[in-house]
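Quick one, tokens below. Sequence please?
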């Protein structure tokens, strides 16, 4: 199944490692992680959302930014797993 992240982006639920609230993801280690992913061009920031980011979705090789809240995405993901 897929989880819709907004702006025509969907990710396979089996590929998702974690979903985080962007505001609480602000620490030195996390900023370093974000910077390393940015250097690898592994951040998917559809339509330049960086100023409106509410959540981060981590997969093994990419980091997705979404304007949808982490709680909404987690609810959607839980619904997908209930239906399987």
């Amino acid at each position: 199944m897929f989880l819709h992240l907004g702006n025509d982006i969907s990710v396979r639920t089996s590929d998702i490692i974690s979903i985080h609230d962007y505001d609480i993801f602000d620490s030195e280690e996390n900023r370093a992680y974000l910077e390393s992913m940015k250097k690898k061009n592994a951040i998917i920031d559809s339509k330049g959302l960086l100023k409106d980011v509410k959540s981060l979705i981590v997969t093994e090789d990419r980091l997705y930014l979404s304007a949808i809240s982490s709680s909404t995405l987690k609810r959607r993901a839980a619904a997908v797993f209930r239906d399987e």
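The longest helix spans residues 70-83. DSSP finds two helices and six strands in the chain.
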